[in-house]
Amino acid sequence: MLGSLEAGHTSSVRLRVNGEWYELSLDNRVALLDVLREGLGLTGSKKGCDHGQCGACTVLVDGRRVNSCLLLAVALDGARVTTVEGLGEGDGLHPVQEAFLDRDAFQCGYCTPGQICSTVGVLEEAAQGYPSAATDPDHPAGEPVPLTGDEIRERLSGNLCRCGAYPNIVDAVRDLS
């Protein structure tokens, strides 16, 4: 059991993490981030601010990007969770991971897993036509949104980089769109 509440304050949760199912007995108050890092040993997602403000903990839940430090794991029973470790196929890297390497889109690397997972989500959101605050108001609803520099910066604004690798991150995302 992850967590330390008295009996009766735990729940059985089934999660599919990076393609593998886990049956877990969890403290009802434990965040998904802590389950991933401490319970499953998947340390790619980082605990930055622990308040949902920095994006270092971003993962994909059922294909949508989320701050895993804010989600109670018990609320995700049956969900598909993908971390940065689960993006690639076998030993191969995901195209977003490749683009970040090609563009040197990181410095210290602490924010990189969250930036990468968020980028995977951004690409899917834009392809499905979801607008952002930077999307042209005249853009046809439901049509793929072009990822301009402004669009990329707006969509990734919840992922902070203390080193300031933003120009290379934007270039990496632009290469993928």
Automatic annotation (TrEMBL):
<keyword id="KW-0408">Iron</keyword>
<comment type="pathway">
    <text>Alkaloid degradation; nicotine degradation.</text>
</comment>
<dbReference type="InterPro" id="IPR052914">
    <property type="entry name" value="Aldehyde_Oxdr_Iron-Sulfur"/>
</dbReference>
<keyword id="KW-0411">Iron-sulfur</keyword>
<dbReference type="InterPro" id="IPR001041">
    <property type="entry name" value="2Fe-2S_ferredoxin-type"/>
</dbReference>
<dbReference type="InterPro" id="IPR006058">
    <property type="entry name" value="2Fe2S_fd_BS"/>
</dbReference>
<dbReference type="GO" id="GO:0051537">
    <property type="term" value="F:2 iron, 2 sulfur cluster binding"/>
</dbReference>
<dbReference type="InterPro" id="IPR012675">
    <property type="entry name" value="Beta-grasp_dom_sf"/>
</dbReference>
<keyword id="KW-0001">2Fe-2S</keyword>
<feature type="domain" description="2Fe-2S ferredoxin-type">
    <location>
        <begin position="11"/>
        <end position="87"/>
    </location>
</feature>
<dbReference type="InterPro" id="IPR036010">
    <property type="entry name" value="2Fe-2S_ferredoxin-like_sf"/>
</dbReference>
<dbReference type="GO" id="GO:0046872">
    <property type="term" value="F:metal ion binding"/>
</dbReference>
<dbReference type="GO" id="GO:0016903">
    <property type="term" value="F:oxidoreductase activity, acting on the aldehyde or oxo group of donors"/>
</dbReference>
<keyword id="KW-0560">Oxidoreductase</keyword>
<dbReference type="Pfam" id="PF00111">
    <property type="entry name" value="Fer2"/>
</dbReference>
<protein>
    <submittedName>
        <fullName>(2Fe-2S)-binding protein</fullName>
    </submittedName>
</protein>
<dbReference type="InterPro" id="IPR036884">
    <property type="entry name" value="2Fe-2S-bd_dom_sf"/>
</dbReference>
<dbReference type="InterPro" id="IPR002888">
    <property type="entry name" value="2Fe-2S-bd"/>
</dbReference>
<dbReference type="Pfam" id="PF01799">
    <property type="entry name" value="Fer2_2"/>
</dbReference>
<keyword id="KW-0479">Metal-binding</keyword>
